[in-house]
Amino acid sequence: MTTVPLPDFPAGFRWGVSTSAYQIEGATGVDGRGPSIWDTFAREPGRIVDGSTGDEACDHRHRYAEDIALTAGLGVSAYRFSIAWPRVQPGGAGPANAAGLDFYDRLVDGLLAAGVDPVATLFHWDLPQPLEDAGGWLNRDTAARFAEYADLTAARLGDRVKLWITLNEPFIHMTLGYGIGTHAPGRMLLFDSFPVAHHQLLGHGLAVAALRARSTSEVAIANNYSPVRQVGDTDADRVAARAYDALHNRLFTDPLLGRGYPDAPGFDPAVVRDGDLDVIAAPIDVLGVNYYNPTGIRAPEEGSPLPFEMVPLDGYPRTAFDWPVAPDGLRELLGQLHDRYRDALPPIQVTESGCAYDDVPDADGRVHDPERIAYLDGHVRAVHEAIGAGVPVTGYFVWSLLDNWEWAEGFTKRFGLVHVDYPTQRRTPKSSYTWFRDLIRR
């Protein structure tokens, strides 16, 4: 672990931690909450590696006051959480469920009382099951339903939420949920999933308008990005790398910033109607960047259904997810965004950055996680280098405050600054919690 002091960041830089509703809230039958696609998916045999569900998760719905105290104890200026759409609109349409919004009222007020800015994500993958039954994000009507949900939520919370994030990682939701089926709703459409991309982006644009009408707070989207590392030096390898970059890094950004859709694999102009691109390109105040690792790409084998092949990158330490630890990838990515979009690029906030390790309490009950500290140290330095190079980065959020239910991996992967003993729900701050707190105090 490096002992070189960390550099200073600009005044007003936003330090935060992130969570998501289905991964921590639990209480799936409380407040009149309806079923989500993840409730359905987790009950299908073989979908979740440990057979668990998010029914209890971290029981945040009942323990939110304790979790607010842990957040405030870090000294962060912001807490990014997501609002469960099925808790606000159990059927995915119609009037707001007052009991569901009451919970978020209490959470937002508790954060403000603790001196922490609420940063609310409207969609972190927990689509109401009735909307999926009607086609999910393959159905254009879901974009309109999302705008309606945004309006209802902002009408209740818009005077206190400090930053709205419409969608979390629409590329990941499209790819894993509709493309290859490893996430809910479990469809396997490959490039026929492009309508999911367009309808998510259309929903984002419609939601931006709804949020602007109800709230004066800033509006953002949180995209997942991965710098492409070309493996091989043939023309075919270069074509494959460009194709993957267009799909992962440009498909959900070019149209946001007024450039229309790139020439990406699976792009189908038939679903794009007149005026859609103008709606999608509604100005945003912040671009959220979620970064975990770069991706190795080379030309595919003959007969492959994909125009690229993903390959492991050698020479990096690995997380428990077997992801390469590459802080230089974050610096590279931030520079690429700046160079690619220039004046069209709004200020960036890194809305997720974190790592999973097999954290185990010692005999005294303490949880030491030096690998996570080293990870965060490297990525914080990468952000500072990007700022020094002129990239407008104004915030950094660690994923995650708590160990949580990690989607298809269930309870087997721990990302938290705080260890959660799931049988007892006991919270224990790890050594990385103390490290991050001390960094912010500087």
TrEMBL record:
Catalyzed reaction equations: Hydrolysis of terminal, non-reducing beta-D-glucosyl residues with release of beta-D-glucose
Superkingdom of the source species: Bacteria
GO biological process, one term: cellulose catabolic process
Segments traversing the membrane: none
MF terms (GO), sorted A to Z: beta-glucosidase activity
GO cellular component, one term: cytosol
The protein's Enzyme Commission number: 3.2.1.21
PANTHER family listed in its UniProt record: GLYCOSYL HYDROLASE (PTHR10353), LP05116P (PTHR10353:SF36)
Protein name: Beta-glucosidase
Lineage: Bacteria, Bacillati, Actinomycetota, Actinomycetes, Micromonosporales
